[in-house]
Amino acid sequence: MATRATGEPKVTERDRVMKQKSMRVGRNDLCPCGSGLKYKRCCMFKSFSNPKDIKAEYQRKYNIRLKEKADIVLYGIPNWSPYAAFSVMNPLLTILSTGLGYFGGVIEAMGKPGCTVIMVTPCPNRWDTVHHPSYPDVWENVLSATRDPYEIQAAYAEKYATHAEYIEKYRTGFAFHPVHAILATYPLRRLDHIGHVLVAGAQDPGTIRHIGFQPAISVADALTHAEEIYGKDFSLAYVDQPLPPVKLLM
């Protein structure tokens, strides 16, 4: 006998048991399913059949209000960008476009004016000249001349927007438009709010110094530098990035 579909996903007995257990499990605890993995790496979200439950779980774990803004904002930079979906990350995308761009709102929301930002990334000094032919050019020749985003826009945008060789690669190959490398420097305007930028864990410290930021061997090393600025009683906001829901197995 046919039944009318309700549009609601079927909830199994396992779902109900796992949901009940998960309410008592921290994200870094061992998963109650017995896999031996941490809950966040196993059934943290697979235990929910209803997308509304996933949204509620996200809000419970990550919707946190700070009592006051912090001296230091610390976060890791993901090894991914929509501008490198079919390519690889490069220093311009990692540090500026993602580190100051996509995370810029977090910095201003969580950090005091003049705060210190600690980014954590290996930041490999690698470049894909098929997809990003103008990027190493801008990195080497523009950012060595100025790190003022407004000056960069005024002095270089037209030059790269009409660069014949790069435009040809954009039209006939797989390259991003050459002016995008200029636009990727615009997050430097976040430095109006930031006092210091430290990058922990970079493979090549010279890559970090090239844009005027300070390399640190590790997060602990970066915090030691920050302590010299604020003293031992500094306040710290750590951005714990949730697992992306695109990896959910529903």
Quick overview:
The protein is built from ten helices and five strands. With 250 residues, the chain is an alpha/beta fold. The chain has a five-stranded parallel β-sheet with strand order 4-3-2-1-5.
Question: What does this 3D model show about the protein?
Answer:
With 250 residues, the protein is an alpha/beta fold. The chain folds into two domains: 13-63, no CATH class; 70-238, Alpha-Beta Complex (2-enoyl-CoA Hydratase, Chain A, domain 1). Helices cover 37% and strands 12% of the residues. A five-stranded parallel β-sheet has the order 4-3-2-1-5. Helix 3 (91-102) packs across helix 4 (104-110). It is globular, with a radius of gyration of 22 Å. The protein starts with 12 loop residues before the first helix and ends in a 12-residue tail after the last strand. Residues 1-9 and 245-250 have low confidence and may be disordered.
